[in-house]
Model the fold of this input.
Amino acid sequence: MRRHLWALGVADGTSIASFVDPNEPEGLVPLPDGDVVVAEQGPNRLDLLTPATGVLTPFLTIPNSTGNVGVDDIALSSDGAGILVPDSPSGRLLEVPTGGGAPTVLASGLGRPVDAGQLPDGTIVVAAEGKPGLVEVVGGSTQAVGSLTDLDEAIPDDGLVYVTDLGADEVLAVDPASGASRVLVTGSPSPQGLVALPDGSLLLVDSTREVIVTLPPCA
Done:
């Protein structure tokens, strides 16, 4: 199946450009030089996309001997120096320098991790398709946050972690200190994309309904 990466004008939804990518692209991380790192689920690999040319070049190949579905989402570390890579098929969390190089294993035994983000104090939160759904990673140690399951996104912002729950079709705000959560959205069949915008609002992608909507943050 042929997949596409789309660059969109966020203000009005106008398509700026499209890039054919047959490798089942999932997560994206833009780099300061204008290139974009793409998580390719098919080959379990990260590729580097140069938007000016549409050329994709291998950035990091992640061995997968499990037969499980490949990498899902990726995120930039809080200092901008590394890319957080949930190694979905192997249950690990990796970090690779944005300039390329060998990855570091930050945690293992995470089930099927699919997204990660970093809090201001350096703590990394990982979303997983399973139980526990939200995990903190500090210094190689892991700890469950709350009792959520079957998550797809984990977006730290302004002291909270916003998550999408695929099993319950919900978007929630989670207090990482206590694990308490509040439901912000219900009835979203496939909430598989979430990002915090500079103005404090959230952008949600529902892949079943094929819509992109903005949400107010948790008050």
